[in-house]
Amino acid sequence: MSLLWNTLLVNPMLNVLVVLYRVAGDLGVAIIVLTILIRFILVPVMNPSLKSMKKQRDLQPELDELKKKYKHDKQKMAEMQMALFKKHGINPASGCLSQIAMLIVLIALFNVIRLFTINGDYSLINSKIYSDQFKISAGETVNTNFLYMDLSKPDPYFILAVLSGILQFIASKMTLPYVEKAEKAAKATEPKSDDIAFQMQQQSLYMMPVMNVIIGITLPAGVVLYIVVTTLFTIVQNYFSSGWGGLTPLLKKLKFAK
User: Which tens digit of pLDDT belongs to each residue from 90-108?
Assistant: First the structure.
């Protein structure tokens, strides 16, 4: 299993990072470029989740009607919600698959950065590099400095950690359904604390940003840099896929959206 993990993920990612580092001469820039490349590769994996998210947004008026109709029968309301999702080919948990894929890549990248920032002995990393011309020569030191940080250590000022939490909140908020025609209907319904989809969305909305901050405080800055860039990519991808989503009301108030 370890051999398969290294062969399919860690070693190829490490080699791409080494090449980018040799070309750019900056580990931070190399990580940013590698992150963007990874996200483009994962676009086919993310698209089904984005399409499902858009369908849920479009179904929001019907979901609000079901909530209003079955407000005194929570079990029936949940059954009808699931039936509606099934009718339109929506899996409320489809986002979990994309999150799992992102987590796998994150773990692999952590291993890569850990290998790449070992001080002194680069024999292990050289054994994984495919081409001799990119291997680290004796006496050579990998420069892990980027801006004010040492990418091999946690961000001393927690700036990346906080930024990753804020960006994750924005990305999560964008996934919440918002349909202008249903705005009044949604306000007319009772609190949604008993809504299955709503509960899942709320958990994601607040848990993921908190997790990002905790991760950002403890992990090497190089890994957190990956998280920040990949979350920015997610925000852009969400916008072009389904617009601002749950951020729309706030942006309207700030005059940034119509």
Answer: 766 666 667 787 788 878 8
